[in-house]
Amino acid sequence: MRLDKYLKVSRIIKRRTVAKEAGQGGRVTINGKPAKPAAEVRPGDVLEIRFGDRLNRYQVINTQEHAAKADAAAMYTVLAGEDDL
User: Fold this and answer.
1) CATH second-level architecture of 3-80?
2) 62 near 43, Cβ under 8 Å?
3) What residue spans of 1-85 are helical by DSSP H?
4) What pLDDT does residue 25 have?
5) Whole-number pLDDT of residue 29
6) What's the predicted TM-score (pTM) here?
7) Which residue, 57, 32, 47, 69, is CA-closest to 1?
8) DSSP 3-state assignment of 46?
């Protein structure tokens, strides 16, 4: 699944255009490598997303095409967030 779509479906980032801009701006990495919006996301990948001064890390659990709001959080595991830094 594309990175920008995954971020939107999983609700890590609420809007796909914002997810696309984050990828184009170099604020997202997949497994430590800079990622463009069209980069493939697979289960097991580790995403790092920089939001201002915060760096959040997530591990991808699954990449389903659609997810209800209640099920979106099950698509990833938070490895580190603002409270951990």
Assistant:
1) Roll (3.10)
2) yes
3) 3-9, 16-24, 69-72
4) 93
5) 96
6) 0.88
7) 47
8) strand
